Amino acid sequence: MATEIQTADVRALLEAERTELTEQLVELGYSDGGAGLNYDSNFADSSQVTAERGEAEALANTLKETLVEVEHALEKLGGADFGKCEKCSKEIPAARLEAMPASRFCIECAAAAR
C-alpha cells in the first residue's frame, strides 16, 4: 500500500507524468485556455487534414483524461484516501501504485469495470 512505498517517490512519479502529459499536449498544439487544438488557418480542409485533425483531437482527449487522473492522485496523495480503492475501499497493492501511481481502483475493481 501507500505506506510501503515512499510518498516522495510517488509524488515524483506523478509530477513527472504530469509534466510529460502537459508537454505532449503542447506538442499537439493544445491550448490550455480551453480552446482546444490550434490549427493553422491556412491549412487546406482536405479529407486527410480532417482525418489527422480527428486523430490529434482523440489523442489530446486521452492525454487530458490521463492528466485529470494524475491531478486527482496528486490531490489525494497527502490524505488517508491515497492508496485505497475508490470502489471497494481496499488497499491498492504497492506494486500497482508503483506501476500506475494514479490508480484509483484495485486490480479486481478495475477488471470488473471492463
Describe it.
There is one protein chain. With 114 residues, the chain is mainly α. It has one domain: Up-down Bundle (Four Helix Bundle (Hemerythrin (Met), subunit A)). Helices cover 57% and strands 4% of the residues. It has four helices and two strands; from the N terminus they run H-E-E-H-H-H. It has a two-stranded antiparallel sheet. Strand 1 and strand 2 (36-37) form a beta hairpin. The longest helix has 30 residues, at 47-76. It is elongated and about 50 Å long. It starts with 6 loop residues before the first helix and ends with a helix. The model has no long low-confidence stretch (mean pLDDT 83).
Offer a few descriptive terms:
two-stranded antiparallel ribbon, 57% helix, mainly alpha, single chain, 2 strands, Four Helix Bundle (Hemerythrin (Met), subunit A), 114 residues
Write a concise synopsis of the structure shown.
57% of the residues lie in helices and 4% in strands. With 114 residues, it is mainly alpha-helical. The chain has one domain: DksA, coiled-coil domain (Four Helix Bundle (Hemerythrin (Met), subunit A)).
